[in-house]
Description:
- With 413 residues, this protein is mainly α.
- It has a domain at 48-333: Glycosyltransferase (Alpha/alpha barrel).
- It is built from twelve helices and 16 strands.
- The protein has a three-stranded antiparallel β-sheet with strand order 2-3-4. It has a three-stranded antiparallel β-sheet with strand order 11-12-13.
- Strand 3 and strand 4 form a beta hairpin.
- The protein is globular, with a radius of gyration of 20 Å.
- The model has no long low-confidence stretch (mean pLDDT 96).
Amino acid sequence: xxxxxxxxxxxxxxxxxxxxxxxxxxxxxxxxxxxxxxxxxxxxxxxxxxxxxxxxxxxxxxxxxxxxxxxxxxxxxxxxxxxxxxxxxxxxxxxxxxxxxxxxxxxxxxxxxxxxxxxxxxxxxxxxxxxxxxxxxxxxxxxxxxxxxxxxxxxxxxxxxxxxxxxxxxxxxxxxxxxxxxxxxxxxxxxxxxxxxxxxxxxxxxxxxxxxxxxxxxxxxxxxxxxxxxxxxxxxxxxxxxxxxxxxxxxxxxxxxxxxxxxxxxxxxxxxxxxxxxxxxxxxxxxxxxxxxxxxxxxxxxxxxxxxxxxxxxxxxxxxxxxxxxxxxxxxxxxxxxxxxxxxxxxxxxxxxxxxxxxxxxxxxxxxxxxxxxxxxxxxxxxxxxxxxxxxxxxxxxxxxxxxxxxxxxxxx
Length: 413
């Protein structure tokens, strides 16, 4: 396999984005009354009474803004504008600032708390829309939201960022992101996506205090959340960073590897960049050794003793494609490129939904589709697979161009 094969992979991934993922969301996600549907089943049955989460709207806004920057199709920008209007018009708290976590089917606030994970995705999406359009309003709102995160969620005593607050930013007893999470004040997932949001905001507005906050976040990821001995990231922590869970998430590990590298590259601090590159390589080696099945797919979760959840859901596979491509740019090790391409092969053969569109939730280890899950819902969105398609196709084309410029074949599996 040589340069034409890399270009073929890039073409197939781009085709899935442009002919499957994006058209699916434009055809099925929009609610006739405005905004987006709260839930659409895997057989495309709409639940008109389903509550709606700001996370879905923010992720649609990010995906279609980023896709417009790459593809320059006005239909994509129009859909991004629909998401912007929904996020600002229905979820923004004009009294206390920030964004409600969810609304009911009529548009009234349902869960008015300020989940920092959600605020981060608002910052990320608004920043990306500004990069796509250069309109100042969304950037101003992104900066305002980032200031609220820094004012209320920073733990100045123990470092890091806290999980959630009431509508008025007072403390609440239950800060869980979802029912599947632990009720602990700090999590890897929230830190990971605040970091991602701050990197996006810095690209949109490369001045101000956000630079220092991003550097602090990277140090927290490296010093508090990553275990350098195992190459895994912890999931939940007490205020003083005592680890509260032994569960490992292989998808979050490989996602963190490339998002930390992206954030450090955006920041431009050479010392942090060197540390992050070493950490990303360590994480990738651990993921290769412990988290991947014989078919090239990532397991969902495990412990130090091995995998405990052997289902293969959609989003870890998407993160594996980008994560291993990114690590390959650091290592030049064919094993990393092979892992990325095998993850795409698995997606293409097992997860793309040829009947209803988009991707299915996942498959069990023995290959049975995981049925009965939303195709559109609170957590099922176009962010992971849309972002993967944009990142992977761009990176694969760059690898092919680099090989041509060297006038030597690029070795691939």
